[in-house]
Amino acid sequence: MTCTWNNDVHSEILLTKTYGETLILRPKDCIKFEGREDGVRIEEFARSDPGIGPIGFTYLPWRAEEKRWATFAFSLAKGDIRRLVCKPTGIERFVWGQHIDWDTVELIPNPEVIQN
Questions:
Q1: Which residues form the domain of 94?
Q2: How many domains does the chain have?
Q3: β-sheet bridge partners, residue 57
């Protein structure tokens, strides 16, 4: 499984799963994965050196019971606390972040739009 930049301006990630399926991920896309079945919204990609893949991205989880996105959460020590680590580049460059099973990632419709 790998995450690579899908364009030169680093506005899209190409996720290639272990078994060959590919997904293009962009800011404001909604995805779900093991442990976050209600979905999350991709907020911002963490940059990397040109030519090297993304190191990760921040996200907001969907609060299904409240029918809203979670509020931004920040720590003085770590910055945005909701951060996913992209493989392989993020493993080497992120000091901290959440590691997920990228093979479980799926694009989903925006839950906010479905609720309204």
A1: 2-115
A2: 1
A3: 45, 84
Task: Give the span between the Cα atoms of 62 and 31, in whole angstroms.
Answer: 10
Asked whether the predicted pLDDT for residue 116 surpasses 60, the reply is no
Give the pair of three-digit tokens for residue 77: 């020590």
**What is the pTM (predicted TM-score) of this model?**
0.89
CA–CA dist 15, 12 (Å, integer):
10
For residues 82 and 73, is the Cβ–Cβ distance under 8 A?
A: yes
List CB contacts of 43: < 8 A, sequence separation 6 or more: 27, 28, 57, 58, 59, 60, 80
Place of tokens 């920040």: 74
Query: In Å, what is the CA distance from 96 to each residue of 5, 22, 64?
Result: 21, 26, 27
